[in-house]
Amino acid sequence: MSTAASTTFPVRSRPLSSAWSWKQRDQNIPLFDELNVASADLSAPNAPLGSAWFTATSFPSEVHVELLNARRIPDPFKGFNEHNVQWVGEKEWLYKCTFVADGDVPPSGIRSVLEFEGLDTFCDVYLNTQVILSASNQFRTYTVPIPPTYLLHSPAPNTLLLHFKSAPLIAKALEAKHGVVRAGSVNLGDPSRVYVRKAQYDWRWDWGPELQTVGPFRPITLHTYSARIADIYARVYASNAEDVEHRVEVDVSVAGNAGKGVGVTVTLNDPEGNILRSEQVALPSASALEDTRDTSEEKSEESQTFPSLVTFTFPQSAIRRWWPAGWGEQALYGLRVELGTLGGESTTLDAKETCIGFRTIRLVQDPLQEADQHGKGTSFYVEVNGVGMWMGGSNWIPADSFLTLTRPTTTNSSTSRIRAWLELARDGGQTMIRIWGGGVIEEREFYEGCDELGLLVWHDFPFACGIYPGPELPSFITEIEKETRNIVRRLRGHPSLAIWCGGNENYQQVLQWNLSPSPQDPKKPNDPFHSTLLPARIIHEHILPAIVGELTHPPTPYHPDSPFGSIACPSAGPPGGSKDSQGWDGTHPSAFSDADPRTWDTADPRIGDIHQWDVWAGKGLLYTEYDKMGGRFVSEFGVPSFPNPPTLQYILSDIAEEKRKQESHAQSKIIAQHTRAGGFERRFAVLMNEGWRVAEGVERYAYNTQIMQAEAMGYAYQSWRRAWKGPGKEFTAGALVWQLNDCWPVVSWAIVDYFLRPKPAYFAIKRQLQPITINIFRNVTKNRANDRPRQYYEFGAFQSISASLDVWGFNNTLVSRRVTLELAAYDLTSDWTHIERHDGVILSPNQSTEILEGKACPCPARSSAETQYHSEGDGDDSGLKPTTSHTVVVSARLFDADTHALLARTSDWPQPFKYLDLSPDNYDPGLSVRVGGDTVKLSAKRPVKGVVVSVAYEQGTPTTVGDGEAFTEVDKELAKLNFREGPSDTFGDGVKWSDNAVDLVPGDEQVIIAKGLRGRRVRVAYMGREEGHVV
């Protein structure tokens, strides 16, 4: 075919999404003889999985899901079934697809590539029995050139064969060859995982099951072309200076033989789709790019990049900024690049589209002007468009153990589970999501969703809790370089991507485990990376930052690991090259020395980010200490809780009915199976017994764990937001709760359970992340020095003699706000109340403001009976014990000083809660619940704690976890494993609650919007009546 004809061959992209079959590998026959094995009906009883090919029920596909759909394995999310499916990950599996090429078979001079967006994990790929790829990395996409002789012409069928091998067995073989290393605690799966580039949570984590998934879990596409657009990247240079224009430089990478007379047309549209600029340019002359490597080696598509091929500039007034949620608009501009022939009768050869946002971003680590309780140190905050922001958000783990089940699979799936999760985060007031390093590189939809919803992304590279190989294993380093380039190129254009991070808790292990340096390599006596506590330092300190610096323009901030801090070497700025505004030139070795490891730290609250696990884990502190802990940026912390009652029922539903009641208690074997946290019973006992009465029955116990989690998370957020005190005093700049989501039904740290049912903690955090908030801290004074929580009233060896209140507000806007504070107090044992107002309060912009400090807590006067015996002494009753404030609930509300609109509310209850007798026999709050349409109105005559409203099931179905039928019989569409196929409004029982788990005080009705309730009745639970009842 002539060159002219070749240049006019438009790209054809054909998804290979049908005609897929799978089977277990039969080790008794040669591999290609497997292609001659007949197909069979998988529903046939006891059909051997290695004896026939079975039709895939969907594509992309995973073996576990195929086996589940065929009912050949039990649901591993129920009962103890996880342990009955371990054999799946230890076998080899085959997938095949047959397709007729039709017009896809190219004439001479035209090229074909197969694009594999995700293979899990070790997979040899054959096209018509010719090997074209040996994949070994779940995190990479592979684009493989196909020699023309490999592809058969119509009508002959082509056969694509995928041979998947066992990742855990290969991992153990690599471990036997290279040595056993430390890799997290015993809860985190086998340490051999560090040798394999596969999602680390597949080996088990302290919130997830051990399920070694396998299969083509993302799309496979055949591209045929003469020339095609391999990649586009817009370098968006936004400016915060009014006199400096915004600039967009578009890089275009072209694969194939563009030839003469071929160019690109670049068009930029505004957020409404109107054309802002369009420019056509000829491609600079370049020779055709041929792949001449040996076919036995891994091949990839060759392309040539034309940097800054088109440049657009705009005055400040012409562009709308992209802002995080809550700060402004998420303005996304459409960028379209067309590759085609130039001249009169132009032909479009290929086109790609993406969205860009105009924003600046920095990770600011400047010396603080003042000291806090920890000292001075440096800041660690995110600045967007010149505005320093307090980041409230969550840690993200993969949304399912089976990744294919997170994507829409039928026409009625308007929204995937991933989008539903992200909307929950945005609706919960969150501004940042941290993609944790033990998971996967998420679907494209995840990042596009963050762009659209205004969720900044802190992105760990895929390393977690392990001593990963370093220079001693060159093949591993080479693979990491390829992987990192692949990942960064795929994601770098998203305006939501704020921070690249080297991984999760890898450096922390060096200090946590007191590891010793590995032996010095005698062949490289001066190479610090061959005598190191952490061989993978070469990855975190050189490879990753160098690639991020090379491929992102302007540079995306890079942080070596999480947690991590270093005064000597700030961890944000352009890797390599000239110094940035913080004086960093991108070099590391002087700051990271094994001889003096204290030049970096993972637990110093004065520098970098920190993981605060001394509540629940570590020192086992109570959550009442969160305000004393903190740090410059708390990127992990959390307290676990049970999932919601219907989710508990799902876990129990695979157990025989006669045994279900026996397992329906908090210390049952089935609860242990679905609680992966180390020492969970002891740790729950410490936190629960300190603050709550010991509960019988799993539903009551679950409620208490959820309210405890809500109290803990709310207190953490209010305390650390309080520490954002203005310029030079950014003592804590963010908090990311561990964790937003679950990958299976489990007792975990998640604030929303696996079925997208928000727990009370979700709403506690949401209330703390509103633009204007008000909070109270109660300090109880005891009669002598002690180590008890400051908030707790004591009735034993110590006695509580008084209590004082701190009240502060937070203004998350850029303008000051004039407000009025209403402070009210209510006694739980009498009709005594107290209300006072404070006018003229000014909330400073973008920081916390102290309103009242050390104010005596209002409380009722003592009765004559209480003072009778004391009056026989010296007549001074100031030291009477205990103070009557031990039964007083304090409420605070903020009103706009001009409009009198309610801006924020909070309440502070006397702690510990176990001393409050709120049982129905002793305490009637006069709770009123009125349901109308999609609203629920709550009010009370006396204070009520933790009112949780949920959907009531139909009459005659169980209302508590231990009763009656399995939940799958109550609501099949919500509980079945493939519930994701339903429309998006079925997620989380089909109701989006605007608020929940609220505290009520007299005279302050609260209205909850329950979108999707659709006339259904509701169940209500609250402290004192923890088992839900229908109203």
TrEMBL record:
Task: Classify the source by domain of life.
Answer: Eukaryota
Known catalysed reaction(s)? Hydrolysis of terminal, non-reducing beta-D-mannose residues in beta-D-mannosides
Q: Which residues form the Mannosidase Ig/CBM-like domain?
A: 804-915
State where composition is biased (Basic and acidic residues).
290-302
UniProt region (Disordered), positions on chain:
285-306, 554-599, 862-883
Pinpoint the Glycoside hydrolase family 2 immunoglobulin-like beta-sandwich domain residues: 228-359
Beta-mannosidase-like galactose-binding domain mapped to chain residues: 51-218
According to its UniProt record, the EC number is 3.2.1.25
This protein's UniProt keywords: Glycosidase, Hydrolase
* Pfam families cross-referenced by the UniProt entry: Glyco_hydro_2, Glyco_hydro_2_N2, Mannosidase_ig
Q: Which GO terms describe its molecular function?
A: beta-mannosidase activity
Tell me, what is an example of a GO biological process annotation in this record?
A: glycoprotein catabolic process
Question: Pathway, per Swiss-Prot/TrEMBL?
Answer: Glycan metabolism; N-glycan degradation
Similarity remark: Belongs to the glycosyl hydrolase 2 family. Beta-mannosidase B subfamily.
Name this polypeptide is given:
Beta-mannosidase B
The scientific name of the source species is Hydnomerulius pinastri MD-312
Taxonomy-wise, where does this protein's organism fall, top ranks first?
Eukaryota, Fungi, Dikarya, Basidiomycota, Agaricomycotina
